[in-house]
Amino acid sequence: MIPLRDDVPSRSVPLVTIALIVLNVVVYLYEVSLGVGGDGAAKAFIFEFGAMPCRLTGACAGLDDFPSPMVTVFTSMFMHSINPMHVVGNMLYLWIFGDNVEDALGHGRFLVFYLLAGVAAAIAQTLTAPRSHVPMIGASGAVSGVLGAYLLLFPYASILTLVGFAFFWRFVHVPAMVMIGVWILMQLILGYLTVSASTGGAEIGGVAWFAHIGGFLTGVVLLFLLRPRRSARS
């Protein structure tokens, strides 16, 4: 299922959402400028600024400590693999769901929400593979937090979704609770399979399933902590 738009109008310009998308795209274009091969400057950039679990836990303390491991938790949120579908998918979800969550929280709260969800996602993935030397990159952990908040705020919103299999594709309107519910269920299943296979889950070109799960759950909690007292629309 590929979401295309929702039916919840935003009451304000989503300045933070737009800024986050622009920043992610700029960083991606910079990565592309470094080269698209598996080695070289682009790979060095990812290993330097991606969040490496063993650096966060101190299990590979012998590696260069610049930048600080905690700094990489934030820089990694704005990096993506060279495959354009990685950044396009994350930014599509952020654009569709982020504006309404930002509308409910306010610009400042939403920025704090987004960054904290991304931090929690990195921690969740690190706990599953604390000695991994593979850097985590991508906005998906933070965007997963946005999905968690959106599910609580607008469970009955209608999401125009492209659904298909093989050569059969069609546009359908799917309730947010169904679309996001299926999404988180898939993360749980794939996360379980990852643990069962003992692969650690975080790898360049792979998917950090537990970052998605951790970000989603954190988004649910943060909504209650950061949401203004005024009632949001449902």
How many helices in DSSP terms? 9
How much beta, percentage-wise?
A: 5-15%
Helix content: 55-70%
What structural class do the secondary elements suggest? mainly alpha
Q: What's the helix-strand series?
A: EHHHHHHHEEHH
| Average residue-wise pLDDT | 87
Q: How many strand units?
A: 3
Distance between the termini: 23 Å
The spatial strand order of the largest sheet comes to 1-2-3
Query: What is the total number of structural domains?
Result: 1
Low-confidence stretches: 199-205
Cα gyration radius (Å): 18 Å
| CATH topology grouping | Rhomboid-like fold
What report would you give on this structure?
There is one protein chain. By secondary structure, this protein is mainly alpha-helical. Helices cover 59% and strands 9% of the residues. The chain has one domain: Up-down Bundle (Rhomboid-like fold). The protein has helices spanning 15-34, 41-49, 53-57, 69-75, 84-105, 107-128, 140-153, 176-197, 209-226, and strands spanning 2-6, 158-165, 168-175. The radius of gyration is 18 Å and the shape is globular. Mean pLDDT is 87; it is low at 199-205.
